[in-house]
Amino acid sequence: MMFTSWQTLNWSVLFPQIIILITAILVLLTEITLPKEASRKPIFLLGMVGIVAAFISLVVLAGTTDTVLEFGNALRLDGFALLFSLILMVGTFLVFLLGLDGLDEARPTGYESEYVALSLFALLGGLVLAEATDLITLFIGLELLSISAYVLVGVKKQSLLATEGALKYVLTGGIASAVFLFGASYLVGLSGVTNLYEIALVLAQGTVMDRYGPLVFIGFLFMLTGLSFKIASVPFYMWVPDVYQGAPLATTTFLATVSKTAGFAFLIRLLLATFYLLPVGGQEFMQQATPYVAALSIASMLIGNLLAMRQVNLKRMLAYSSIAHAGYILIPLASFNPNMVDEMAFYLVAYLFMTFGAFAVIDAAYRDSGSYDLKALAGLYHRAPFLAIAILVFMLSLAGLPITAGFWAKWYIFIGAIWGGHMVLAITLAVASIISYYYYFAVLKQVFMRPGTTERPLKQATGSFIVTVVAFAGTLLIGLFPQSILDMFQHVFHAANMFDLFQGRF
Fold first, then answer.
1. What is the pLDDT of residues 104-119, one digit of tens each?
2. How far apart are the C-alpha atoms of 322 and 156, rounded to whole Å?
3. Highest mean pLDDT range out of 297-311, 324-338, 447-461?
4. d(C-alpha 452, C-alpha 392), whole Å
């Protein structure tokens, strides 16, 4: 990455990131000024105000130009980056709402300022991942997100489960980063550049792929394997249940939604910008590489759902469910059809709402019972009818049943796989979804068919209630008007001529 002059750079591209960075610093300074006995809600509110400001800045920035905005060769604000950045901001905003009344209990933990600041730093890393077009910038964003997440998992130092989860997360993440860098070294060594589009240009010239095609494949496989850690898919998936169980619930939700979305943004940009048009034996590179992506997808769907069936801890159950959903989201990349980015974006938005909703209801049950056991939801229908109906919608959506966002998310992916000629993927998706009914319906059985230990009304914390309402509305609205959401995605991708991810600079 070389810049001729800092004055020639388009600094406006960094406005949203700068706002997030300044907000994180203000959060830390606010902690210094607040008395120890004071409420920590203003810290979360300050974080939410910063996200709203960055959100507005990004929307205004994208709407004031009809060209792709670039910061040198490092960052690229196109329709793809815009949509994924907005998803990341909305997700982090909802995380702060969940933590508004305490990170995991009904009382402050004493680490609110660090929690909010680290979440903002993680969001900053995610925004960099969504816009980055250079391997160095991508890795910086990846590590900023990952390191912040490591600390967020272990922020409750008095908890042995949190400490164990954080240790496993760090060790697995370090190995995954090393694997990714080893694969990236092949591309940089063969091309002599680090920009994703320039790598593709160099490798596509002459007979480079004929001579070094196997080495490019090795680099691709190592990079894909390393990125499986960030999206929580096979093979780097074993950290997920322990980290989800040990982390504060707000952090668990962050990892399941925001971190996963950032990982997929990274993966999509990397594969489509660098590998998409590389010629290999008269075919495009991705046509030959898709079987490897399909293998990860199938393994993630089956392993995640089968292991989730054995869980009685709600956080571990949704952890294995998250692995399965990573497999679902990989299907469009494996089937490689023209609508794959739309399908993946649609699924990630649907997954955001239904996952936040499920965790918000679980948060309410935990604050009441002090347990994440499946039985903590017993008798919920009598104690909190709205929460019972809400978790019914969320579980049906996660299972992929009609009139919910999850149904249409899986349906579009299913049709895309068939259209691309990948019947094995489509059949596996159907079988895996049927397997998931076992544990999703086990949740509903506790809610509606098992008596609780008390009939006392269950009261939900304010922030958690707001998240539940937003997620409930989002899950149903997407389920009822799926085409409107797809049309919106296509408008964002193509608005102002900003979506040229496939063409890049070819």
1. 654 445 688 889 999 9
2. 23
3. 297-311
4. 17
Q: Which of 171, 154, 168, 167 is nearest to 115 (CA)?
A: 154
R_g (Cα) of the chain, nearest Å: 22
CA atoms 184, 186, 192, 197: torsion sign: negative
How far is the CA of 169 from the CAs of 164, 176, 226, 244, 259, in angstroms? 9, 10, 14, 10, 13
**Residues forming beta bridges with residue 134, ordered by sequence position:** 195
Over the stretch 371-418, which tens digit does the pLDDT of each residue have?
999 999 999 999 999 999 999 999 999 999 999 999 999 999 999 999
Helix (H, G, I), strand (E, B) or coil at 458: coil
Looking at the chain, the number of H-run helices and the number of E-run strands are 20, 4
**Amino acid, single-letter form, for residue 440:** Y
Burial class (CB in 10 A: 0-12, 13-18, 19+), 249: buried
Whether 336 shows a pLDDT value over 70: the answer reads yes
8 A C-beta contact, residue 447 and residue 388: yes
- Bond into 291 cis (ω within 30): no
CA atoms within 13 A on the CB side of 240: 33
- Statement: residue 431 has pLDDT above 70: yes
From 152, 150, 126, select the one nearest 140 (Cα to Cα): 126
- Host H or E run for residue 76: strand 75-77
- C-alpha of 233 from chain center: 12
Q: Which residues contact 239 (CB under 8 A, 6 or more apart)?
A: 165, 168, 169, 172, 173, 229
Q: Do residues 198 and 135 make contact, with C-beta atoms less than 8 angstroms apart?
A: no
CA angle 161, 148, 146 (to 5 degrees): 90
The DSSP result for 280-307, as a single string, is: ETTEEHHHHHHHHHHHHHHHHHHHHHHH
CB 386 within 8 A of CB 464: no
Kindly tell me if the per-residue pLDDT of 504 is higher than 50: no
User: In whole angstroms, what is the distance from residue 427 CA to residue 490 CA?
Assistant: 28
Q: Are 495 and 420 in contact (CB under 8 A)?
A: no
Backbone angles phi, psi at 134, to 5 degrees: -130, 140
* Contact (Cβ atoms closer than 8 angstroms) between residue 141 and residue 129: yes
Residues linked to residue 279 through DSSP beta bridges, in sequence order: 284
Gap between the terminal Cα atoms of the chain: 19
DSSP state for residue 69 in the 8-state scheme: E
